[in-house]
Model the fold of this input.
Amino acid sequence: MGLLDSLAADFPPTSNPTLGAWRDRAFDAARERGLPTPREEDWKYTDLNAAAARAYKPAAAIAGADSPLSALRAYRLVFVNGHFDAANSDLASMPAGISVRLLGELARTDPERAIAALNAFAKPDAKFFATLNTATARDGAYIDIADDCVLDLPLLLIFSTQSANEPRWSAPHVRINAGARSRVAVIELHHGATTVPSFVNALTEASTASGAVFAHYRVTLESPAATHIGLLRLNVGRDSAVTSYSLALSGALVRIDIDCSLTAPGGSVALNGVFIAGSNQHVDHHTKTDHRASHTTSSETYKGIADGNGRGVFNGKIIVQPGTQKIEATQASNNLLLSADAEIDTKPELEIYADDLRCAHGATVGQLDDETLFYLQTRGVPADVGRALLTFGFVQELVAEIPIPELTALVAQQLAADHPALARLLTGDHR
Amino acid sequence: MAAASSEVHELLNRKYDAGFYTDIEQDQAPPGLNEDIVRLISSKKNEPAWMLEWRLRAFERWLKMPEPKWSHVHYPEIDFQALSYYSAPKSNKDGPKSLDEVDPKLLEAYKKLGIPLEEQKMLAGVAVDAVFDSVSVHTSFKDKLAAKGVIFCSFSEAVREHPELVRKYLGSVVPQADNYYAALNSAVFSDGSFVYIPKNTRCPMELSTYFRINAMNTGQFERTLVIADVGSYVSYLEGCTAPQRDENQLHAAVVELIALDDAQIKYSTVQNWYPGDEEGRGGIYNFVTKRGDCRGRNSKISWTQVETGSAITWKYPSCVLKGENSVGEFYSVAVTHHRQQADTGTKMIHLGRNTRSTIISKGISAGRGQNAYRGLVRIAKSAENARNYTQCDSLLMGNQCGAHTFPYIEVRNNTAKVEHEASTSKISEDQLFYLRSRGIKDEDAVNLVVNGFCKEVFKELPMEFAVEAQKLLSLTLEGAVG
Done:
């Protein structure tokens, strides 16, 4: 039994008939659209067949357990197996200016509002996994940030998949509205602690009002057997500055789509990402920056490492719509191939329908520089330490700009797992 | 009973005949495409049976293929049954042996296009194999080439005279069912050029072919096959012009290049088919499959193209780098003005060790032109130490044009180094202002800037082509700025 059949068979009926009908319609739409295949341009390098051949069951709520970033000072919202975990969350003690509603609760108390919040599939260009998320999301958070709200600590959303004895499906849905002139950082951590092949189909939508400064950090730290499909939709308002980091550090099959629309003048966005595709990992990033208004700027840097038999995919598209002028857009995709069996596929795209602009992109695929390694050796740095240093340096350039040291540390830890020499360096044990 | 059966027999035969030879004296085949047309084309050219079989196989495959829709161009659906697939200029059956024997009307047409054969003959020793519509009417310098053992003739002649070479190499780079238009071409190709350079021979002159579409409603399907044997060198020039007309024309050529050990092929194209009028009416659909196979060690294939014409250009001259140390190059200038659309680029498939490739692509969009670069660089697992450098720049002139870049980079070997960079910007107001302040006219200023932008590609062109290319460019961009 495949993915869609198992989901259709096992999802418990929704108590409210209106909401239930709505979900059924979304499910039918997903079924009609069909699972994406590598014959589609967007899925050319990523084959879902193996992951979708399994039967998944909706994950049950269980008590929370440890997750990374436990020491980080933040306002926390924790979801375990797609269900809200009140005990580990700070829902009751959210600071002024932040209002959080939970999808699970809305579905019980106010189905109309739940439908309004879930309306992803109603959009004509909805992607398959946006529609499927709409159909299967059972919990999630709708966060409103008031005008002029400046948060002292980041908002931390943890989505954790805990051990279960059969393949589990979870589909969290998050929506964030950042008010005018607000300043907020949101961390979205997807974390898995199970050896069972789970499937996460996450959807996050964020939009910023005029003058808002919004940072979004998406960390994918799934278990080695997990399939993770993450969608992030960003809508950048007037004079608003948005930063997005995607740190895709583990998971068997990780696919992250980041769609960003610049809809009003003065908006700017920086899309950055680091991915590590180690052995038996496939990491695919698709980003789209859509300049829909004049006087908007975008910059993008993605750094990828493929090791073992891992495969990294990057597809970045910049679109400048007709009639929009004074655009600046840059994009870079830099990739490191560390082993003979690894593969990198990268495709930086420009689609430009205006003329008063400056757009550039670049892509590189290479390996560590032999001469630099040799130089380090002549200075007494052993080859393995040299390689670890250079590999770390490759991503550190980008990661160091993240103002939250705990996130930087996560990247370092992940790299250290593959490079024992780096682990020794980080613990000061390299002598 | 016996009489009745013979009558039936006769009837059957007659039907068969009618289907088989659709008026053999006619110079243009009736519109439509079916097996009979393929047989007609083959019989018109007195082709051997194996060639006909090859065509029919291709036709069979074509029937089963879907029309590709993935490119970034838009055009009304092509009705393949409304096109005529064969037309021949009126000429004596034996064909002319010198210029005097060529139809003066043909010569007149060439003169209008600015390519007088007589002058071409004198110009820098260029041998011209002119294709007027579908049949070669004139070949020059044959003797000089023959002395070196170089074979340069029309494709139909090659099929008759050098069947062993044609059979060995035809379809070995672009298989019959490679893509929709290659399959169509394989079934109905009209004529084209055939070049064979023997071992350790440097072709004594640049080989050149001029193609031209003349008759109404005739698709033209050239087939070019260039084989450079071990240690040889050849530079091949291809240029196209077409007179103004209203109806869209389909042009689906196939070019196959084969370079064996230590061989080099340089293939240059200046393409200025009729681009349609300012509103995009008319103009040629140019759907071409060009591919070079660096089969031998240390071989090199270099594509240089200047694309200023056609309503729609859709072509990706590619290199398959099989041989160790082989080199592929692609230099391109593509211009779209008014409502022209271009989706062009290259593929560099690295299979052998130490293979290198360079891609330099310059796109210029003006008016409502849409210009897309689509390229693939693939480093296979077997390609140790492969190297690629890609640069594609776009220049925008006018706020309704478009410039797009779709580069695919696939790397499966960790000793590879692949770099890609692309930029898109408007023609610099500062540069134009400076030139104006020096008293240079608007048009000349634009030409100067554009020529500078394209310099890297133009310097790869043979001399006389470079001059023609610059002229074409300024002609194409007339009135684009100001």
Summary: The first strand of chain A starts at residue 57 and ends at 58.
